[in-house]
């Protein structure tokens, strides 16, 4: 399960960031922010070859000593980032994929909300609930 | 250097090379020896064999060899690898000792020299007792040796020397000291290299053979040691594949060792060494993935092996070193050609190393309290000054049992280490690692990672109390986070920066950071903001701010005194802060009410201010500086004693200004620059360039526009001003006053080519006062197709056709003054030489006195009217040449009359009056006397045609060229409905050229215009010879059904040059109607090429025959 989940706007500012409360929140912010380097690189590399048939899931972005960072980019260039504890070896690629898919579905619901203004921080309770379900439960 | 404890020993990091000792060389005093030594060691390029040479004296003492153990039964090892072992094999124990000796084969004192050499060999051998080191002898000779086998003395003496020195033949070399020294040396060193390889091979075998004596329980350490030794010796042998194999074996054995607190450091140290070697070899073998995999395994295995809890910082230091050295290996490999990628580059390892160094620092701070005194005697002191085995504790060397021998000693040792750790410059280490990582990430396109590391560096500088550097770094990256809009990160960085600014007592930085931390981008909590705001106001009141929390006490004290000094120092009390690049706590937006103002309207400017901080802010002055400084005086608000200007939190406040623009600023832009002063002790000017706004407001405005697009209607209903959707209008255009005159144009399009096209202009004033200096500019509107200017001519004089010098645009024609309601008319004539559309501009300008808000100004007004006029040709003229028989002519025969037919077809929509037409002939002449034009005063409606016919003849003496010009056709015309005095326009049509031909024999006929049945029809044929020769002509008349005739039926006659013959026939028509005349067959017997039809062409072919007339019969006429 994830320790941090983030949604990043097309312009690379955060729309939503949530991390497990037990750890240093700022550190996760930095982790997510730095992972955008890799996302941008991957997206631009793909853009050159096959613009249409792009796989949304970017896979493992980069491993750090403590965390694994996974990325996902929607067609509208909104990025999802999931940070998983490195010690959590049981989590397979498929499960990460399905987490992203769930996240994307929920994000789509948020966007469909006529009261939501695209580009604003996400405050949806439903979305929050989905994210909570994917986070590591502490306490 | 305090970190040196964790540095890898240099003998581990170097590339092992076979060690060969050279003796018997006197490199100081003997030039020949010097040259030989230089040849060995100078310019060792990669293609030379890897040997490290050393010159040693002949009687050098080599390290003593300990007596070989025959059994390991009672032996308990004290450690894994001795600290001296690697160095010993690299630099002390040679694989081969080479004795250089000067001796020629034909030396007169051969015997003596031979025995001296043998003695020297013996000395070396004794010194190497017990070692397998090889000995070789090199004879330095002055003469070039003969090819092998030819010099019998040499081979005999060589074998004698070998036996006396107890050398094999392979170990005796000859080095002739001749020109090819380097060549000989290279051959020699290759031979040495082989010997050295054999030596290392036997050494490996020897170490391997120990294995069978070992048992698993007591000799675990030896398993590791032996594998390590074999690997290292293999490296010396340059057998890196096997070396890697042995190192891998050693690595797994190290982790099989029973680990406990006492030997943890030793195990980790050795594991680190072996891991280093494995990674290094993997990179060398160009298998970087193996290296990375090994390193990961190593880290995973060792991460949790912390060892002694009180010395946990040691583990972090060790981990940091592991990452750092791997990063260096990786970097080294990249320099040698390896390519790294964004997600796998040395930067990550440096970063992790820095991370562990940070852990180390934290732990060091935790464990190493101040105040304890260093224990005496120094537990870290050893008798030898160093350790016997790698990774052991100085106070209990060789100790391998689980519990420490002496707990008291142990405690003192730990204390000593802790105290030493306290003095380590952790920040320095961390910053060095971080800057390494920054350099790498810069290279591999990771700007955000780079920024993150720079933040860490800045924080580290802050911890190291180097605030200037810290601020420099933080300032540098802050704007990256600002533009990326990561507010939590920006807030964190700003907080650190604020601490720095406070501790440095840098007023300006402090004020700026406070303002941004109070701003809307800050994610701080209200109470923190409130505290910061209070501090900010303290600084503005020239007071010392409260200490920032989380700063340590000693620096706070220093900072406080700095602040007091700063405050005492008056003078620099004014601060100017540019707000554009920050997200400050006061937002400012200015807008002109409209993007343009007429000069007779007052300009209205609104300035909106909003404070985002938790407490109300008062300020003293608001000024606006506009691009024309003179307006600034109207845009100032100052607080007075009664009414101080307050900004309430999150309540936008609007200030309205209005001023009258200067007439000379018409057409110019006015721009706003805001300045907000707040002075009370210290004065800070906040200045916004443009019309306010800051680093974040563009995006906010975008967001606001998105939402208002959705909620367009809701927006209007909202009572309060929506700050985000407030748009800025940073400039306005001052435009001239709206003209109040009426300009009307009347004309009759389209214009006809070349005519004086009249456009009449009516100007009527609707002003209340006199419009002065009315001026008209009329003509072709500038900026159209380039050629139009030359084909358009404008004039005010319509009485005559304007010449080509008339301009395309008449400028500033004075029309005098216009009283209110007065009307003025003016005709403007345009002459368009070419067809096509044109835009004409009529610009009426005048000035008028008016008053704006009690201020008298003279306004200039103008009104523009444009009209598009198409120009068309009035008529088309077609011209053709025909013969007198009205047959079209391709060629015109000289001196024979022909006809010119002109046809004028009107294409003008207006009726045209053709006044006259005339021919201006060249070459050809008119056969008729000049007549009045046939077209005089003809009026042509659209589509109607008028034709004229002229009979012309080409005079006989113009046979110079084939084609000749015929002249021009001039038509004068005007519009039928134009006034009688309007000028006539002359249109000239150039007549086509004709091709001339000369006719040698001109035959024509004289005959009446018609015949009558059964009445005689006399026809006279003329045969004219136009050549200079006598012509013989044969003429025959064909019979015809329609005619009877009398005359010569067939005749042959001669025509003299320049004369003519006539032949008379009397035709008698038999039938009425158009009848073909009897055909005349003409042939020139002398000139067979000429044919009858060509000669016949001037003859009429038919004639109209009227029926037989009745006798005048009045009765019948009356009956009809």
TrEMBL record, chain A:
Locations listed in the record: Cytoplasm, Perinuclear region
Keyword set includes Transport: yes
Keyword ATP-binding listed: no
Pfam families: Sedlin_N (PF04628)
Source superkingdom: Eukaryota
GO cellular component: perinuclear region of cytoplasm
UniProt entry keywords in alphabetical sequence: ER-Golgi transport, Transport
InterPro entries found in the cross-reference section: Longin-like_dom_sf, Sedlin, TRAPPC2L
UniProt xrefs under CDD domains: TRAPPC2L
Gene Ontology BP terms: endoplasmic reticulum to Golgi vesicle-mediated transport
Family designation: Belongs to the TRAPP small subunits family. Sedlin subfamily.
PANTHER family noted in UniProt: TRAFFICKING PROTEIN PARTICLE COMPLEX SUBUNIT 2 (PTHR12403)
Descriptive protein name: Trafficking protein particle complex subunit 2-like protein
Source organism (scientific name): Poecilia formosa (Amazon molly)
TrEMBL record, chain B:
Keywords: ER-Golgi transport, Golgi apparatus, Transport
One Gene Ontology term, aspect cellular component: Golgi apparatus
Compartments, record wording: Golgi apparatus, cis-Golgi network
Domain Trafficking protein particle complex subunit residues, every copy: 263-519
Highest taxon of source: Eukaryota
Boundaries of every Trafficking protein particle complex subunit 11 C-terminal domain copy: 1033-1082
GO biological process: Golgi organization; lipid homeostasis; liver development; protein N-linked glycosylation; protein secretion; regulation of response to endoplasmic reticulum stress; retina development in camera-type eye; vesicle-mediated transport
Pfam families for this protein: Foie-gras_1 (PF11817), Gryzun-like (PF12742)
PANTHER family for the chain: FOIE GRAS, TRAFFICKING PROTEIN PARTICLE COMPLEX SUBUNIT 11
Entry similarity comment: Belongs to the TRAPPC11 family.
Function: Involved in endoplasmic reticulum to Golgi apparatus trafficking at a very early stage.
The protein's name: Trafficking protein particle complex subunit 11
């Amino acid at each position: 399960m994830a320790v941090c989940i983030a949604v990043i706007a097309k312009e690379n500012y955060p729309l939503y960031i949530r991390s497990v409360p037990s750890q240093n929140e700022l550190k996760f912010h930095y982790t997510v922010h730095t992972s955008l380097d890799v996302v941008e690189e991957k997206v631009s590399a793909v853009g050159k070859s096959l613009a249409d048939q792009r796989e949304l899931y970017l896979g493992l972005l980069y491993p750090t000593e403590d965390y694994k960072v996974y990325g996902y980019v929607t067609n509208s260039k909104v990025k999802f980032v999931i940070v998983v504890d490195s010690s959590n070896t049981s989590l397979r690629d498929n499960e990460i994929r399905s987490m992203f898919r769930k996240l994307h579905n929920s994000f789509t619901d948020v966007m469909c909300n006529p009261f939501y203004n695209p580009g604003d921080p996400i405050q949806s309770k439903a979305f929050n609930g989905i994210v909570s379900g994917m986070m590591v439960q502490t306490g | 250097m305090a970190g040196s404890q964790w540095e890898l020993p240099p003998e581990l990091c170097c590339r092992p090379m076979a060690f060969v000792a050279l003796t018997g060389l006197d490199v100081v005093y003997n030039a020949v020896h010097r040259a030989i030594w230089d040849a060995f060691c100078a310019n060792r390029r990669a293609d030379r064999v890897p040997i490290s040479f050393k010159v040693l004296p002949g009687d050098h003492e080599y390290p003593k060899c300990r007596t070989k153990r025959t059994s390991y039964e009672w032996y308990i090892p004290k450690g894994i690898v001795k600290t001296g072992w690697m160095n010993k094999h690299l630099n002390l124990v040679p694989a081969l000792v080479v004795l250089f000796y000067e001796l020629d084969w034909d030396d007169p004192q051969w015997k003596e020299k031979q025995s001296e050499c043998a003695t020297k060999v013996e000395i070396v051998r004794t010194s190497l007792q017990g070692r397998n080191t090889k000995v070789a002898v090199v004879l330095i000779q002055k003469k070039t040796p003969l090819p092998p086998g030819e010099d019998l003395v040499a081979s005999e003496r060589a074998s004698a020397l070998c036996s006396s020195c107890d050398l094999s033949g392979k170990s005796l070399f000859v080095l002739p000291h001749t020109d090819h020294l380097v060549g000989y040396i290279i051959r020699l060193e290759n031979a040495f290299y082989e010997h050295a390889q054999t030596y290392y091979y036997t050494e490996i075998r020897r170490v391997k053979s120990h294995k069978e004596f070992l048992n698993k329980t007591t000799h675990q350490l030896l398993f590791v040691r032996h594998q390590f030794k074999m690997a290292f010796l293999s490296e010396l042998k340059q057998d890196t594949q096997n070396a890697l194999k042995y190192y891998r074996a050693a690595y797994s054995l190290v982790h099989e060792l029973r680990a406990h607190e006492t030997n943890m450091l030793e195990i980790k140290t050795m594991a680190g060494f072996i891991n280093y070697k494995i990674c290094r070899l993997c990179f060398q073998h160009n298998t970087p993935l193996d290296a990375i995999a090994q390193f990961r395994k190593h880290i995973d295995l060792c991460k949790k092996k912390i060892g002694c809890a009180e010395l946990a910082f040691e583990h972090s230091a060790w981990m940091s070193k592991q990452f750092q050295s791997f990063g260096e290996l990786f970097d080294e490999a990249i320099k040698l050609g390896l390519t790294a990628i964004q997600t796998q580059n040395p930067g990550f390892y440096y970063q992790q190393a820095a991370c562990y160094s940070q852990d180390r620092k934290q732990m060091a701070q935790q464990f190493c309290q101040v105040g304890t005194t260093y224990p005496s005697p120094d537990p870290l002191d050893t008798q030898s000054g160093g350790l016997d085995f790698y990774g052991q504790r100085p106070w209990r060397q060789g100790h391998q049992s689980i519990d420490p021998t002496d707990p008291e000693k142990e405690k003192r040792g730990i204390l000593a280490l802790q105290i030493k750790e306290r003095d380590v410059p952790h920040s320095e280490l961390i910053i060095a690692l971080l800057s390494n990582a920054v350099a790498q990430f810069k290279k591999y396109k990771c700007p955000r990672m780079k920024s993150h590391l720079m933040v860490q560096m800045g924080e580290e500088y802050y911890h190291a109390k180097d605030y200037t550097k810290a601020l420099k770094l933080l300032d540098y990256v802050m704007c990256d986070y600002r533009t990326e809009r990561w507010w939590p990160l920006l807030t964190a960085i700003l907080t650190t920066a604020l601490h720095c600014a406070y501790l440095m007592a840098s007023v300006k930085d402090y004020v700026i950071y406070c303002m941004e931390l109070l701003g809307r981008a800050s994610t701080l909590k209200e109470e923190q903001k409130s505290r910061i705001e209070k501090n900010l106001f303290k600084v503005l009141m020239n007071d010392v701010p409260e200490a920032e929390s989380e700063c340590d006490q000693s620096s706070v004290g220093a900072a406080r005194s700095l602040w007091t000094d700063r405050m005492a120092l008056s003078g620099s009390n004014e601060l100017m802060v540019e707000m554009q690049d920050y997200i400050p706590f006061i937002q400012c937006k200015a807008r002109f009410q409209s993007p343009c103002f007429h000069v007779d309207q007052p300009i209205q400017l609104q300035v909106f201010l909003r404070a985002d901080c938790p407490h109300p802010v008062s300020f003293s002055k608001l000024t606006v500086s506009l691009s024309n400084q003179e307006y600034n005086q109207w845009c100032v608000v100052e607080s007075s004693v009664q009414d101080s200007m307050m900004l309430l939190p999150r309540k936008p406040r609007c200030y309205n200004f209005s001023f009258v623009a200067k007439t000379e600023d018409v057409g110019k832009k006015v721009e706003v620059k805001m300045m907000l002063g707040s002075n009370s002790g210290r004065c800070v000017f906040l200045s916004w360039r443009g019309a306010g706004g800051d680093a974040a407001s563009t995006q906010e405005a975008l967001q606001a526009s998105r939402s208002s697009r959705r909620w367009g209607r809701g927006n209007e209903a909202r009572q309060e001003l929506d700050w985000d959707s407030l748009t800025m209008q940073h400039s306005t255009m001052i435009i001239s006053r709206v003209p109040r005159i009426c300009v009307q144009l009347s004309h009759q399009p389209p214009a006809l080519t070349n005519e004086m096209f009249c456009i009449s202009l009516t100007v009527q004033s609707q002003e209340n006062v006199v419009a002065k200096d009315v001026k008209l500019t009329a003509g072709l509107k500038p900026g159209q197709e380039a050629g139009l200017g030359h084909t358009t001519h404008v004039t005010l004089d319509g009485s005559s056709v304007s010449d080509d010098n008339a301009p395309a645009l008449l400028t500033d024609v004075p029309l005098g003054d216009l009283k209110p309601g007065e009307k003025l008319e003016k005709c403007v004539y345009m002459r368009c030489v070419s067809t096509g559309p044109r835009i004409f501009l009529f610009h009426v300008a005048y000035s008028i006195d008016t008053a704006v808000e009690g201020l008298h100004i003279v306004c200039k007004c103008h009104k523009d009217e444009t009209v598009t006029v198409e120009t068309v040709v009035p008529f088309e003229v077609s011209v053709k040449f025909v013969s007198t028989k009205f047959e079209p002519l391709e060629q015109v025969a000289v001196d024979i009359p022909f006809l010119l037919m002109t046809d004028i077809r009107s294409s003008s929509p207006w009726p045209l009056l053709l006044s006259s037409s005339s021919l201006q002939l060249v070459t050809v002449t008119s056969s008729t006397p000049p007549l009045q034009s046939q077209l005089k005063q003809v009026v042509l409606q659209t589509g109607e045609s008028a034709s004229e016919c002229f009979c012309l003849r080409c005079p006989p003496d113009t046979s110079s060229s084939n084609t000749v010009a015929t002249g021009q056709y001039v038509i004068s015309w005007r519009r039928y409905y134009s006034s009688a005095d309007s000028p006539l326009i002359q249109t000239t049509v150039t007549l086509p050229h004709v091709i001339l031909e000369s006719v040698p024999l001109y035959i024509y006929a004289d005959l009446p215009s018609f015949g009558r049945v059964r009445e005689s029809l006399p026809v006279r044929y003329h045969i004219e010879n136009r050549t200079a020769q006598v012509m013989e002509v044969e003429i025959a008349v064909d019979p015809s059904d329609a005619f009877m005739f009398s005359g010569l039926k067939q005749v042959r006659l001669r025509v003299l040059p320049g004369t003519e013959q006539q032949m008379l026939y009397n035709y008698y028509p038999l039938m009425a109607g158009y009848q073909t005349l009897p055909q005349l067959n003409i042939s020139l017997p002398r000139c067979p090429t000429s044919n009858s039809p060509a000669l016949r062409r001037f003859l009429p072919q038919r004639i109209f025959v009227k029926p037989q007339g009745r006798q005048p019969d009045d009765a019948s006429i009356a009956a009809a």
